[in-house]
Structures are given as structure tokens and as C-alpha cells.
Amino acid sequence: MPKACSCGLGCPTAPAREFLPGGTHLRLGLEEIDRQHEEIRRLLNRLHAACVQADPAAWRPVFKQLVSTVKEHFRDEERLMRRHGDPALAAHKARHESLLDRAADLSEAVRRGAVIDEPVLLYLKGWLRDHVLGPDARMAAFLRRAVRKELNAWR
Ligand SMILES: [Fe+2]
Question: Quick one: which of 28, 35, 41, 111 is 20 to 30 A from 128 by CA?
Fold first, then answer.
């Protein structure tokens, strides 16, 4: 009989089920971006698992690492979009900034002793999944087309 998850998020009882499951639908066909998204997904799952423990020493370093990995990843995405002249850069960047603003507020709250609770975990999970499947998928399609055009111009 599988053990019930005690995180309070109503997770399915199978312990193998991840908070944010991976899968091909999250892959965008850009190797480095996909690798970074997978790293972020794993960190979020680690944060969820660590938050089950009441000890902040268990989840604080994971939260910090998640925030810094997301920051680097956003920089890389924006650099790629700029290099290939993606017209959606400004709007995409604004979405990144909205998450980074929230992350800065959360970091400050954590520094003052707040805990990462259910609404925060669900917000992060929803934001990341929706962002990858929405604006990032559009960006990936644009970048793949741009690279194809560039390669065709060599012929
Ligand atoms: Fe993005």
C-alpha cells in the first residue's frame, strides 16, 4: 500500500508521483532550454519534497537554488530571443520580470522567517508549467524557424 504524501497539497498517494511531473509535452526541441527547464522542474520537485519537512534548513537552500537557476535561465532565454530578433522579447521579458518580482518578495519573506506553503508551491508550479507551454513554446517555434532560415541561407 503506497504511503500518503503528508505535504498537505492533496498529492496522490503513490510516492513515486512527482509534484510537477515531467514529460515530452514540456520539451520544446531546443536542447539547452529543455535541459534548463528540466533542472528547474527537478528543483521545484525537490522544494516540494523538502517542504514536507518542517525544518527550514531542509528547504531554504533548495528555494535559493531554484530562484538563482530561474534567474540564469531567464537571462539565457532573453539573450537567445534578442540574438534572433524575436519581436515578442519585450512581452516575454515582462512575464519573466513579474515572476522575478514575486520571487524577490518571497525571498525577503523567507529571510524574515516565512515558510514556503501550499499556495506558494502551487503558484510556482502553475506559473512554470503555463509559461513553458505558452510563451516558451511560442518562443521555441520562432527560434527553430529562425535557425532553419539561417541554415537555408547558407545553401
Ligand atoms: Fe521564458
Answer: 111
Residues with CB under 5 A from ligand 1 (ion): 77, 136
Contacts of 153 by beta carbon, 8 Å cutoff, 6+ apart: none
- pLDDT by residue (tens digit) across 54-71? 678 889 999 999 999 999
Give the separation between CA 14 and CA 54, rounded to whole angstroms: 21
Ligand 1: centre distance to CA 37 (Å):
10
Q: For the chain, what is the domain count?
A: 1
How remote is the CA of residue 33 from the centroid of ligand 1, in Å?
A: 9
Q: State the pTM of this model.
A: 0.86
Q: What is the pLDDT of residues 112-124, one digit of tens each?
A: 988 888 899 999 9
Residue 11 lies in a domain: no
Distance 69 CA to ligand 1 centre (A): 13
C-alpha distances in Å from residue 133, one per residue of 76, 90, 100, 130, 154: 18, 18, 19, 5, 32
Give the range of the structural domain holding residue 40, as residue numbers without chain letter. 29-153
